[in-house]
Amino acid sequence: MPLAAAPAEPSRSGAAEVEMFSGSSDAQILRACCDDPAFRATRSPYLVVDREFTVVGANAAFCAATLRAPGELVGRPLTAALPDNPHRPGADGVARLTASLSRVLRLGLRDHLPVQRHDVPAATGTPGFVERVWVTVNSPLVAPDGRVIGVLHHIEDVTGLISPGAEGSDLAAAALARALDTENSHLRARFSRHVSIEQAKGALMAQRGCSADEAFTLLRRLSHETNRKLHVVAEALLADTVGQRH
Questions:
Q1: Which residues contact 188 (CB under 8 A, 6 or more apart)?
Q2: How far, rounded to the nearest angstrom, does the alpha carbon of residue 66 sit from its chain's CA centroid?
Q3: What is the mean pLDDT of residues 221-235?
Q4: How far is CA 5 from CA 103, 105, 109, 180, in A?
Q5: What's the rounded Cα separation, in Å, for the pair 139 and 103?
Q6: Is the distance from CB of 226 to CB of 233 less than 8 angstroms?
Q7: What pLDDT, on a 0 to 100 scale, did the predictor assign at position 50?
Q8: What is the largest CA-CA distance in the chain?
Q9: Is pLDDT above 90 for 160?
Q10: How far, in Å, CA of 61 to CA of 47, rounded?
Q11: H/E element, 190
Q12: Mean pLDDT, residues 50-63 taken together
């Protein structure tokens, strides 16, 4: 089931207010999501981009599927790290990917791409491109205040299994996309908890003048003393902080 649309993006002053009380930038929050053990360990290829389509993190499965080392992806625009094959006339992988990412950021909704061919550059030191056919799901990463701060990019290599435009390819891709939806819903739920925890740490750092480690220790102590999960404590603290400012 698609996610409900995210609220309209707040004004610049509203976004600044959120960052002011949280003390954590969107970049810090997205990096924390990429440090999640589930993101790193899953065998499914995942990558996180920010609102500028710059790669924040990629797991080992994504690097393996695209023949890239982490340093060839992180910090670079996704479309520059994985360009179209210049020797393939009519290649439109970059255009389709950019349009999908833009829809996710604009609407706050998950976006499925049809089966598409998007070749990848050969491994470093080897000239040319390697044929790849993908099923792709792009999902919004949403901050507690409702802003879409990035996109979770999930791909599955179906090269040799499903051909773009072949009879039945849309049905096969739809079935695979539903399976991908289930998996990345679990991962995005973990990410949403990370977002709350990171922002709560920032709020404590701003209020108490403490370090990130000290803020995290305080959150853990509150979690233990109240017998509530860490992300629940973080969300309550954020709600209280917002209430005090209004």
A1: 139, 141, 152
A2: 17
A3: 81
A4: 11, 10, 6, 20
A5: 10
A6: yes
A7: 96
A8: 63
A9: no
A10: 9
A11: helix 169-208
A12: 96
Which of 188, 142, 187 minimizes the C-alpha distance to 42? 187
Q: In the predicted model, is pLDDT for residue 120 greater than 70?
A: yes
Q: Please determine, for residue 42, whether its predicted confidence score (pLDDT) is greater than 50.
A: yes
Asked if 145 and 107 count as a contact pair (C-beta separation under 8 A), the reply is no
Q: Looking up tokens 């599927």, which residue turns up?
A: 65
How many residues does the structure list for the chain? 246
Distances (CA, A) of 13 to 64, 87, 148, 198, 199: 41, 46, 16, 21, 18
Spatial distance between the Cα atoms of 74 and 220, rounded to a whole number of angstroms:
31
> Could you tell me which residues are beta bridge partners of residue 152?
48, 139
pLDDT at res. 181: 60
How would you list the strands of the sheet with 111-117, edge to edge?
55-58, 46-50, 148-157, 133-142, 111-117
Angular region, 141: left φ>0, alpha ψ -120 to 50, beta rest = beta
Neighbouring C-alpha atoms within 13 Å toward the C-beta of 147: 21
Q: Which two tokens stand for residue 92?
A: 């439109």
* Range name among 1-10, 159-168, 183-192, 213-222 with the lowest pLDDT average: 1-10
Query: Do 141 and 191 form a contact (C-beta atoms < 8 A)?
Result: yes
